[in-house]
Each structure stands twice: as structure tokens, then as C-alpha cells.
Amino acid sequence: MKKYSQNPTSTDKVMQNSNIYKEITLRPQTVQFFIDELPLLLLCPIGLVYGGMENVPLAPVATLFAIPLSLMLVYRLIYLKRIRYRIGSEQLTAEHGVFQRSIGYIELYRVVDFHEHQTLLQQIFGLKTVTILSMDRTTPKLDLTGLPKRTDIVELIRERVEFNKQRKEIYEITNH
After folding, report:
1. What average pLDDT is seen over the chain?
2. Is the separation of the CB atoms in 81 and 93 below 8 Å?
3. How many alpha carbons fall within 13 Å on the CB side of residue 4?
């Protein structure tokens, strides 16, 4: 552990404060599943009802399609419920997957822009999608979907991005 003199340098202060931000974990709201899968959610019950009718042409075919669609919906719900977005003091991570888990990392100092978007159904249910654009080669664009609208994610991440850019002495050069 480094011992500090009476007057620590600004670099020492920044290094001392690099862990001042607590890690925040965000998850998409379950309502996002219903927004994303609305057409299939309407189609499956219709197929099952139609398939259960006697003396109706193609009834077995309707049942044949409704069962795999229902299984696909269950998988997509589980997939959505297992998504985790973590905003740490230096990195943003996106973890997803059911049978095979993947974690994408974005160094916060590489983030260059943000965008918030709401579909009509997201507006009705108070959700939003936040898009993060970065100079990261593997993850230049990351969509954080199904987040509550009342949570100011952009400001929270922007503050951490600025802190990390100052800490690493990275400055943006613009040409106007």
C-alpha cells in the first residue's frame, strides 16, 4: 500500500478515489418481454384454441405450430430474466444467455455517446432503452433494454465516464 505525503499529487488523489463508485446492477423489467413478444403471445393461444376445435380444417397443424412457439416464448422469457447490466467504477458489463453465458465488457473511458429511446409500448409502461456508443472494438454499441424510465442511467454512466477519462488523462479532440 502506498503511503501518502502531506500533499498528495492529483494523480494520487484520483487513484485513491478510483473505487468511490459502487457497482450497480440493472435488469430489464419483465414487462419488456410482453412488449417484445406481443405478436407471438397473441398467436399462441389462438393456435391452441383453434387446434383444439373438432372438425376444423388444419386444426392439428395449428397445434403443431403453437407448441414450439410456446416453448420459444418460455426460452425468451428466461433469457430476458437472466440479463444483467453492471455499471462499475471502471467498466460496464452486459451478461446474457441461458445455456451459454456471455459477458461483454466496455471500459467506461471508451464510451463516447448515449441515446435514449422509447417505443410506444415502452412509453405506456414507463420503460426505455438506453444505447451506449463506445470506441470499444468488440462492443461498439450496447443496448440496455427494458430499464425504468424514472432511472437516470445516462447521467449515472456519464459521470463515471468523465471520471475515468480524467483519471486516465484522456481528452476528446474535435474538429469544428
Report:
1. 84
2. no
3. 11
